[in-house]
Amino acid sequence: MNRRRFTRHLAATVGALSLGRVGRSDGALVASTLRVDGDRINRHLAELAEFGKNSYGGVSRVAYSEFDKQGRAWAMGVMREAGLTVSIDPAGNIFGRRAGSSPSLEPIMFGSHIDSVPSGGNYDGDVGSLSAIEVARTLGLNKLVTKHPLEVVIFQNEEGGTVGSRALIGEVHAADLAVVSSSGKTIGDGITFVGGDLATLATVKRAPGAVAAYVELHIEQGGNLDREKLDIGVVEGIVGIGQWEVTAEGMANHAGTTAMSDRRDSLLATARYIDMANRVITSTPGRQVGTVGRVQAFPGAPNVIPGKVVFTLEIRDLDQAKVDNLYAKVKVEGDAIGRATGCTFSYTSLHHSRPAVCDARVKQVIETTARGLNLTTKHLPSGAGHDAQHMARLCPSGMIFVPSVGGISHAPKEFTTPQDVVNGANVLLHTILALDDTAWS
Questions:
Q1: What secondary structure does DSSP assign to 14-69, as a single string?
Q2: For the segment 261-278, what is each residue's pLDDT rounded down to a tens digit?
Q3: Confidence band (pLDDT; 50, 70, 90) for 118?
């Protein structure tokens, strides 16, 4: 379907919603007043928060922990109560399926994750997962059957490297399975622990086009929506991440007997490097970010000039070319710092993910749907990685953001207001309905 036809079709669909009716093959009508049960979603958020709850208001429900396993069992029970057919795939992902009226159509998938970082909050991932279940329940209670089958997904181990969604694109390899997760288990042992099957892991890979569309509701994890008092973020895309370990090498020597002019101080060189990297990143127009997040000096004694420093450099942006260019500029200026201080810098790649731009049609549906619900919107990128980043390689994908109060995330004070949770869930509900009426060919 070309852009003009798609726009006309979308306008007609959302217009019909606003008038209170959209005809369906089963004779059901979608009322403009169709809404999720907000009290139930927020009650479920509080119930899920009990699994891994700590004394200071947050949660430690890291993937493959006992608390993760308990939370997953609870979530599967809620999915069954919502009328979904529940299964665990060989990668350990949880799926809740709802049949459509046209079995030949590919499924529309939506959901998120429920694992947390250590000492994390109660909204990251949880809002999207529980809202997806509530959307399916709302459709069932209203006896509304979509044309496409629906798949509510709870991806496993999002926080430890989006392992579950990477499995769907065939990018979990033997080396990944040997990595030790935050739970202390290897990823391979963790997948088995939560009900997956390593022997058939390869079968979870889906071909591009095997999913009609994917939508993920998530807290923003930033302060834009909260600061500007806006309701809904329409995500433009998920940034690419370049992450390197940088080693600065000089020469260790006695701190008391080595003249300042004779020193090859790798920590001094690193300090200048960090300031330089900040200047390079901020001097280029745009929304890119750069971070030095870990610094270790060796040998680490008060009376020894550091001979080696190991630190990390990370650059994120929605434009991969910009990430590459900024990295190149930092390296050039780093070499100049090295020459001036008698030190050298070397680089080891740690992690790289390419940007994933959200599908223009899905973004348009989210925008139009939110406006139809009288909610304010803003288009913005996601500075954090998400499962949607990998799903974008399989199908048209999009993300809905709701505000994070104070921009706080990955911390016990992470909070999204009950009303914002409900707003996001209702946008998700009507986005799924609008996508179901969309011809993707």
A1: HHHHHHT--B-TT--B--TT----HHHHHHHHHHHTTTTB-TTS-B---TTSHHHH
A2: 999 999 999 999 999 999
A3: very high
